[in-house]
Amino acid sequence: MGFKTAGKKNMVCKLKKLLYGLKQSPRQWYKRFDSFIRGKRYTHNHYDLCVYYNRLPRGEYIYQLLYVNDMLIASKSRSIIDKLKKDLSSEFEMKDLGETKKVLGM
User: Fold this and answer.
1) How far apart are CA 86 and CA 67, in angstroms?
2) Rounded to an integer, what distance in angstroms lies between the CA atom of residue 26 and that of residue 21?
3) Is 59 part of any domain?
4) Structural domain includes residue 15
5) Does the residue 1 lie in any domain?
6) Chunked in runs of 10, what are the mean pLDDT values of the chain (106 residues)?
7) Domain total for the chain?
8) How far apart are CA 37 and CA 92, in angstroms?
9) Residue 69 is part of which domain span?
10) Does residue 9 lie in a domain region?
């Protein structure tokens, strides 16, 4: 299995970055995302670790729901939503699909 190089029989290759498709890739991505969003003073919900929220200065909240590679952001303040999207796009490759038309769930 793998490849062989003369004189390097018992050596392995060290990955310098994650490869898409590896079993640990989703976990590593989530850890990176979690670290980033917590740095922005967001807290995750104790019952669902993919729900983050932040209390805004005027007592309002912004919620961020993460599901695999999709995200839903909800708040009364459009400017706060735009700021969060700008922060996220500066750190992660993403595209804005616009307003949510339908949310499926149980």
Assistant:
1) 19
2) 9
3) yes
4) no
5) no
6) 72 69 74 91 90 90 88 91 93 88 72
7) 1
8) 11
9) 42-91
10) no
